[in-house]
Specification:
Number of domains: 1
Strand content: 25-35%
Distance between the termini: 41 Å
Helix content: 10-25%
Radius of gyration: 14 Å
Strand order of the largest sheet: 1-2-3-4
Amino acid sequence: MTRDQLNAEVEKTLAAATAKIVAGASVTGSQGGNVGTIEAIDDQFVTVKLVSERRCGCRAPPSPPGRTAPLSA
């Protein structure tokens, strides 16, 4: 696989993962348990409705499903 082919595959994979980060998607914790649902997304925050019914406005870099993103609430 050439560098250009690898870069194209990485971009394709990131685009597919980013497309899954939408309102209504489930959010899982580092141990795999459900912690809530994405309620809204804007250019700086992701609002997650936690299973406890609380809401958390989290600033986080994009992170594909299955990967952990550091969060600050």
